[in-house]
Specification:
Chain B: It is an enzyme of class 7 (translocase). The complex is a heterodimer. Helix content of chain A is 34%, strand content 12%. By secondary structure, chain A is an alpha+beta fold. The chains are: A alpha+beta, B mainly alpha.
Chain lengths: 351, 571
């Protein structure tokens, strides 16, 4: 197949290259006064740089940094502008020097094709061939056993290093922990971040509480991991506005509902509650959930509703959980519907 | 004194050369020519920002503690008194408020990082639009592309280190994206975080990646990138005397030593001004990472905006159709995979492979050292603009809450606008840009054939008025006629003259289709024959000598009349 779609024009079909344009001398090339002026300007810029270094050093030693945001900002400004002057003086001076006093008459240099010469190529190939014969990898005395065993050894040797390295990095690899949170039957709902408990009577219509499980603040280990899964938003709606989901008739209490605060999209906290519309908005990617209708998705990239935490009120009037969430909270993952969760079937209710 | 220094320098040079033979290298490098053009400094901005990153990074590393151990703050900052935070966050506050110059160095580091990524992207656009990626520079394009990806990695790992609430939520998004990967997602998440998110080991791991792995790779690839620039010799813009077989420019020493060396200080100075005057990433306002709160208007650094925008753009439901599927009990999240994995993958894939895609279409095998004017590659220029617009729409969607707030628009309408725009705008801009490029090529033809308008109107003796056009000087003429006229090639007949089927027909037909896509619409450069004919035509229409003499006479008479009037007025 011919790829000759570039027809090289013959000389009379071609315009003539006029060559490099004539060099026009600059003022400093012809006028010694202008050249002296350029020299003085350059030296002045270098002088400014010296001044900048002095400003930076005087600022560093002479100024009190203080400990308020404002005083630290002024300290930063003086030091930074000193450094800037020190740098710009050198830079602009050097460029001015190059532009006014150094050569600006362009020169021409030939390029050479990058490809090696045919002899060099042949020589290289011959050397490699000789080497292959010398080593016994090819040629008349071929030792194929060596080749096969070396390739196998080289191919699997990295495993001895990589398997322990990668294997250790995932700790115990117990990914089923995604399925469980601290919530369980009888765990009381507490305010985030102080941990004080919430009574049903505290929750007025229209109010919203950021909630953590009781006991979270006292955890010794994995506090932040548990918090990252367990945070809940508690709101009270007018019971008439609340559409109770099928199978969840006893999950709420007198218009009080609790939903996981972890977005089912990629896991940001869904923290913005619009009281008027009962919408919960995730500020990261704007998934919007309707709290009055089972926290279903009304806009944005999330697909699943926020998981609901079944709640009730205990004898002392505190709001408590009936159980853990009935599905893994947070973003979807491949086997979220699989595994050891006995209540996995409940997840089908939501859509 | 001067003589003494010279003697000392000569002695040192002799000492070093006898032990290294470096003299030959100095001879080779010092008079090496570089062509001059402002756009060649974009790559330099990236390189120098990287040097500034290394310098300021050394300072920061002296104070930063990459640890997720919890402590209670009791430093000078009142708003943070008694707040629980990781040591990483606490040491960031300590560095900013108690170490003189610490805040400045943090801000220099962050501004330099933004400048670094921005300069790389703009440099890459320059290389793309001028065709500097063509043979023999395809490999260097790939090296540069890898550097661009590494700069994103460097930026993101560094952004996450202070462990503030903003970057922590960024990491949580990464965790969500990783988990969406089919089959392996949960395990990759465990591997990354050493257990459940956020764990206690992530910051130390990111720290090692940020100060050792990523910058080490960047340094190695920068060395390779520059070595290849020297090996290939720099490209040059078209013009008189500049061919694919020469370099026209100025020597490395002293001209570029002064210009490029001086430019390092200019870049450093500008970054220092930004850092001195404009606060960036004030983590003390955000607070330490806590999985519960999040503020409105959460934006990542600019270079990650496009991924965040893609995540926002993709709906979870399309009408009543879910974009997260449950197949045989397994969950497949298209709503995350498409925007965060597949689309960036395709986008970066096209970028990485572009030099080869275009080479298939041109079928050209020669070395190209003279750059294209973007108008002379209309399809490429159109593709470039379409890619940029695609990227920009995603970046705008990544700031949609800020735009909505600023212009009092509905967030949902804005998102829907971008959802449609992402399909409509890039093809539209491809078409418009290509048409503009072709129009500019026609304008070039017009100028070559008819010359520049002078604004001088001349009347012929037979009464016709014409405007005098001035022919182009030889340099301008050469610039406007000297470009490759590439025509699309045809796939060969499926069977050769002996009736034997040729191999690889599908590949050849694909290349022929690609070639048609690139070169079917084209404006051919003026040929010398056309030029000669136009010159002849103009000669017959040009003003005659008598006519010109008459015009001059008239002008003189007008002038005399004006002077007469002026005299009268005076009197």
């Amino acid at each position: 197949m011919s790829l000759e779609n570039h027809t090289e024009p013959t000389s009379d079909e071609k315009f003539e290259d006029p060559g490099v344009p004539h060099h026009r001398p600059r003022k400093a090339d012809v006028d010694p006064k202008a050249a002296d002026k350029a020299e003085r300007q350059t030296a002045f810029m270098f002088g400014l740089s010296i001044l900048g270094t002095i400003v930076a050093l005087v600022g560093y030693f002479g100024m009190d940094m203080g400990d308020t945001v404002g005083s630290i900002r002024s300290f930063t400004a003086v030091l930074g502008l000193g450094i800037a002057l020190a740098m710009l003086g050198i830079g602009i001076g050097a460029i001015h020097w190059a532009k006014t006093l150094m050569r600006d008459h362009e020169m021409v240099e030939e390029r050479h094709e990058l490809r090696s010469s045919d002899e060099a190529r042949e020589g290289a190939i011959q050397d490699l061939k000789d080497g292959v014969v010398d080593s016994g990898l090819g040629g008349p005395k071929r030792r194929s056993l060596l080749k096969g065993s070396l390739i196998t050894a080289l191919a699997i040797a990295p495993l001895s290093l990589l398997v322990p390295q990668i294997g250790s990095m995932g700790a115990d690899w117990n990914v089923s922990r995604f399925r469980h949170t601290m919530w369980d039957k009888g765990v009381r709902l507490a305010r985030d971040p102080d941990g004080s408990l919430i009574k049903a009577a505290d929750v007025t219509i229209g109010s919203a509480f950021h909630v953590i499980p009781e006991g979270l603040v006292d955890l010794e280990h994995h506090k932040i991991e548990e918090k990252a899964k367990a945070v809940v938003l508690l709101v009270r709606l007018n019971p008439e506005d609340l559409k109770i989901q099928e199978g969840r008739e006893d999950w709420s209490f007198d218009g009080i509902v609790a939903y996981s605060k972890i977005c089912t999209h990629v896991g940001c906290p869904v923290a913005l509650y619009e009281q008027q519309t009962h919408h919960l908005l995730c500020p990261c990617h704007q998934s919007t959930f309707d709290v009055s209708d089972g926290a279903k998705v009304v806009f944005g990239p999330a697909k699943r509703p926020l998981p609901q935490l079944p709640i009730e009120v205990d004898d002392e009037g505190y709001i408590v959980a009936q159980s853990d969430f009935h599905e893994p909270v947070g973003p979807s993952y491949w086997d979220r519907l699989k595994g050891d969760d006995s209540s996995a079937t409940d997840e089908e209710v939501e859509h | 004194m001067g003589a003494k220094i010279n003697k000392a320098a000569a002695g040192t040079a002799n000492y070093v050369d006898e032990r290294t033979g470096v003299g030959a290298l100095v001879k080779f490098l010092s008079r090496k020519l570089f062509p001059d053009h402002w756009s060649f400094m974009l790559g330099e901005v990236a390189l120098y920002s990287f040097v500034v990153l290394l310098l300021s990074g050394v300072f920061i590393t002296a104070y930063f503690e990459p640890s997720m151990t919890f402590v209670t703050y009791d430093g000078p900052l009142e708003t943070m008194q008694g707040v629980e935070m990781s040591k990483a966050f606490e040491s960031t506050l300590h560095m900013s408020f108690e170490v003189p110059g610490g805040l400045l160095m943090r801000q220099i580091h962050h501004w330099a990082a933004l400048m670094f990524t921005a300069a790389i992207v703009i440099h890459m656009a320059r290389v793309f639009f001028t065709g500097a990626f063509r043979k023999p520079r395809e490999i260097n394009w790939l090296v540069g592309f890898t550097l661009m990806i590494l700069s994103l990695a460097a930026g993101f790992t560094g952004y996450s280190l202070p462990d503030d609430v903003l970057s922590g939520n960024g990491l949580r998004i990464i965790d969500g994206v990783v988990k969406s990967i089919p089959i392996l997602g949960s395990y990759i998440s465990y591997w990354l975080f050493g257990g459940e998110f956020p764990g206690e080991i992530l910051i130390p791991r990111l720290f090692t990646a940020h100060i050792l792995l990523v910058p080490g790779l960047i340094l190695a690839l920068v060395a390779l990138h520059l070595f290849l620039v020297f090996l290939h010799k720099h490209t040059q813009y078209p013009g008189g005397g500049r061919t694919h077989k020469n370099v026209v420019g100025l020597p490395l020493f002293p001209v570029y030593t002064a210009k490029a060396g001086g430019f390092f200080f200019v870049v450093f100075g500008i970054i220092a001004i930004l850092a001195a005057l404009f606060t960036i990433n004030p983590v003390w306002n955000y607070g330490p990472y806590d999985p519960s709160p999040v503020s409105a208007g959460t934006q990542p650094d600019w270079y990650i905006l496009f991924v965040d925008g893609a995540l926002r753009l993709m709906p979870g439901w399309l009408g009543g159709f879910p974009l997260e599927w449950e197949i045989a009990g397994y969950t497949l999240s298209w709503n995350i995979l498409v925007p965060a994995v597949i689309v960036p993958g395709i986008f970066f894939g096209i970028l990485a492979l572009y030099p080869w895609i275009e080479a298939w279409a041109t079928g050209d095998r020669g070395e190209k050292h003279v750059l294209d004017r973007p108008r002379n590659a209309p399809t490429r220029t159109g593709i470039g603009v379409a890619l940029i617009s695609f990227y920009m729409i995603l970046a705008l969607e990544g700031s949609n809450d800020i735009i909505a707030n600023l212009f009092h628009l509905s967030l949902n309408d804005l998102t829907w606008t971008f959802r449609i725009a992402i399909f409509v705008v890039p093809p539209l801009l491809f078409w418009i840009t290509k048409r503009i490029a072709l129009g500019l090529q026609r304008k070039d033809r017009e100028l070559v054939l008819h010359g520049h308008e002078t604004g001088r109107i001349v009347r012929h003796e037979h009464g016709e008025y014409i405007e005098v056009h001035e022919p182009l000087d030889e340099q301008e003429l050469w610039l406007r006629v000297n470009y490759d006229n590439i025509t699309p090639f045809e796939a060969p007949e499926e069977f050769n003259e002996n009736g034997v089927r040729r191999g690889g027909m599908r590949w050849k037909r694909f290349k022929a289709r690609l070639s048609r896509f690139y070169f079917e619409d084209r404006v051919e450069p003026v040929t010398p024959a056309e030029y000669a004919e136009a010159q002849h035509h103009h000669a017959s229409y040009a003003a005659s000598d008598e006519g010109l003499a008459e015009a001059e006479e008239n002008a003189d008479a007008d002038k005399a009349l004006d002077e007469g009037f002026a005299q009268l007025k005076k009197d």
